[in-house]
Amino acid sequence: MRSTKTLIALTLCAWVLPSVARASAPKAVDGWRIQQRCILQGDEQIVACSQGVKVYNPKNDLTIVYAAPFKEVVYFDKRTGLVCKVPAGKNDNPYQRTIGMFSGLSLADVPLHKVASSKVVDLPTDNFVSGPEYAAEQLKLAKAEGHGNRIKFVAYGVFTSLQLPANEYEFLAKQYGLPHKTVVGVPAHLLYKSISDKSTVFLSTQSCSKAKISESEFAVPPNLKPANSSQAVVAGDNAGMLLLF
């Protein structure tokens, strides 16, 4: 017959061990998994929740992590073994220089006004467009420059029901080089027209679904080699050389 001490020890183990397992298990919170395509980066897989955002490009094995305490943005590529940590306040779109090669275009600076809301992948979306004054200004600049590499119209939509921290909305907009000062939400879609009337879908969303997100999603692999800039980490990405007009 077991002694009283043995029974007490077994009872404590039965209570303590599951508690330790629960404490060591990665915390999971409500969040979203988003599949998008951008003309610059190509396909993007996004994980977003209150604890952070991760953007993964499967073609190039490039990962970008912006997670609590939100002091830095980490770029890493497991193929090349490179990593770069950028202070959050200094992070910007690493593809912006490529866009400027074609026109000096900055989609982030296009003045927009709100129009009727809609749904994208069954989620509420606030929509914004540029106006005739902007089109007239761009047409004037195109004539002065002697080429048609100017945008005369922009239609932009953002998801408004994902309930993420405002700094994550700004981070995602900056990663695509899109408006973030006057438009608040997760980028959902963007279409623009050039002076020559060519329409381009700059950003589209294929899916956006609720998910449980573990803290381990935002882990950065050890033993990576520091790079001197985020551009150096994404340098192998040929998607940025697409002709935008």
Short description:
This protein has 245 residues and is an alpha+beta fold. The protein is built from five helices and twelve strands. It has a twelve-stranded mixed β-sheet.
Structural summary, described in words:
- The protein is α+β, with helices and mostly antiparallel strands and 245 residues long.
- It has one domain (28-241): outer membrane lipoprotein receptor (LolB), chain A (Clam), CATH 2.50.20.
- The protein has helices at 4-24, 96-102, 132-145, 166-176, 230-233; strands spanning 28-38, 42-49, 52-57, 62-67, 72-77, 82-87, 113-120, 123-129, 151-159, 186-194, 199-214, 225-226.
- A twelve-stranded mixed sheet has the order 7-8-9-10-11-1-2-3-4-5-6-12.
- The longest helix has 21 residues, at 4-24.
- The protein is globular and about 55 Å long.
